[in-house]
Amino acid sequence: MSVKIKAVSKALPKYSRATAEIIPFLDGWLAGKDERFIKKVKKIFEGAAVDHRYSFMSPEEVFSDLTFEERNEIYSREGIKLGEKCLKSALEQTDWLPTDLDYIITVSCTGIMIPSLDAYLINKLKLRQDIVRLPVTEMGCAAGISGLIYAKNFLKANPNKRAAVIAVESPTATFQLNDFSMANIVSAAIFGDGAACVLLSSCPEDEGPEIVAEEMYHFYDAEQMMGFKLTNTGLQMVLDVAVPDTIAEHFPEIIHPFLAKNKLAIQDIDHLIFHPGGKKIVQLVEGLFSELGKNIDDTKEILRLYGNMSSATVLYVLEKFMKSNPAKGNIGLMLSFGPGFSAQRILLKW
């Protein structure tokens, strides 16, 4: 039973700013701090390889003393709008009706919603009352691929079914006004907000790249490296400086055995669909792949145009590849990293 990706769509929030337009807001945020520290923070923003980013909130709201409750309310309200927008767009691409969906997976880690986003989308689009729903939370940047893996397993076990995976993220809603740690600063410099939707099918008549293999990889004793700490002021970023080195250490085990199980080597991969976690991770993975004769130029371009949108970002990279109409027989490797610490991998064949 083959499972194929039928369509990918993206949706962007109403607020957007170039990085150069964000820099003046840093002066207000960092008022009273040491001048050398202020210069260092501005240098981090300017050197983050992010030229532009979108947000659920205006810059004035981001750099304000909004409470956790107020920020989460914006996350919920705008997230529902964006989730509906990208799901509608994907359905329009395929000429599917909302009632054609058998399974809906929603992915997010940057706010708290109960009921989860999928419940709102069922009502907004009048999805079927017997649709199977799965909200995926707390998996961070890796969850875009995680959602695809769960959808693929459902569809493989259920012929002639269709699924939607919707990732909606607002990392800017987690910004901590009174936290001047490197984790909060780096997070503010690299993250942006966005949403994406992927439609998948196990119906024989539906065309698209096939998910031929998928696998997760879990790092032992690395829970402390990445995630959020729930505080009275919201979700506080946890980001260990050792993340890039840890990825580099595990990289051969993440890539080569997975490919070997599918009788492939890195030389057989035509497209690298990699989640751009940030400049350092991108540079690290680019170096490792360039030694193998591959590039991640599209990943770098998505980071430059939108920033890291957590789980949605790798789906933006996927959408870019889908639009380029890869040749029949081309093979793509999707890869992302997230809290746990974990790596998620998918093999696609066009």
- Total DSSP E strands: 13
Reading off the top of the CATH hierarchy, the class of the domain at 210-349 is best stated as: Alpha Beta
Strand order of the largest sheet: 1-7-6-4-5
Sheet having the most strands: 5 strands, mixed
Beta-strand residue fraction: 15-25%
Structural class: alpha/beta
Provide mean pLDDT, rounded.
92
Low-confidence stretches: none
Morphology: globular
Cα distance spanning the termini: 16 Å
What is the second-level CATH architecture of the domain at 210-349? Answer: 3-Layer(aba) Sandwich
Notable features of this structure?
4-stranded mixed beta sheet; Peroxisomal Thiolase, Chain A, domain 1; 5-stranded mixed beta sheet; 13 strands; 24% strand; alpha/beta
Task: Please provide a written account of the structure.
- By secondary structure, this protein is of the alpha/beta class.
- The chain has a domain at 210-349: 3-Layer(aba) Sandwich (Peroxisomal Thiolase, Chain A, domain 1).
- It is built from 11 helices and 13 strands.
- It has helices at residues 19-29, 35-46, 59-62, 68-94, 117-125, 143-157, 182-190, 243-261, 279-290, 297-306, 313-323; strands at residues 4-11, 15-18, 52-55, 103-108, 132-137, 162-169, 194-201, 210-218, 226-231, 234-239, 271-274, 331-338, 342-349.
- It has a 5-stranded mixed beta sheet with strand order 1-7-6-4-5, sandwiched between helices. A 4-stranded mixed beta sheet has the order 8-13-12-11, sandwiched between helices.
- It is globular and about 65 Å long.
- The two termini are 16 Å apart.
- The mean pLDDT is 92.
